[in-house]
Amino acid sequence: MSSSALADTAKALVADGKGILAADESSPTIKKRFDSIKIASTEENRRDYRDMLFTTPDAGKYISGVILYDETIRQKAADGTSLVKKLTKAGMIPGIKVDMGAKPLAAHPGETVTEGLDGLRARLEEYADLGARFTKWRGVYRIDAGMPRPGCVTANAHAQARNAAMAQEAGLVPIVEPEILMDGDHDIDVCEEVTEEVLRSVYNELVLQNVWLEGTLLKPNMVISGQDCPEQAGVEEVAERTVRCLKRTVPAAVPGIVFLSGGQSDDLATEHLNAMNKLPGTLPWKLSFSYGRALQAAPLKAWAGKPENLDKSQAAFLKRARDNAAAATGSYAA
Question: How far apart, in whole angstroms, are the C-alpha atoms of residue 285 and residue 277?
Answer without folding.
Answer: 11
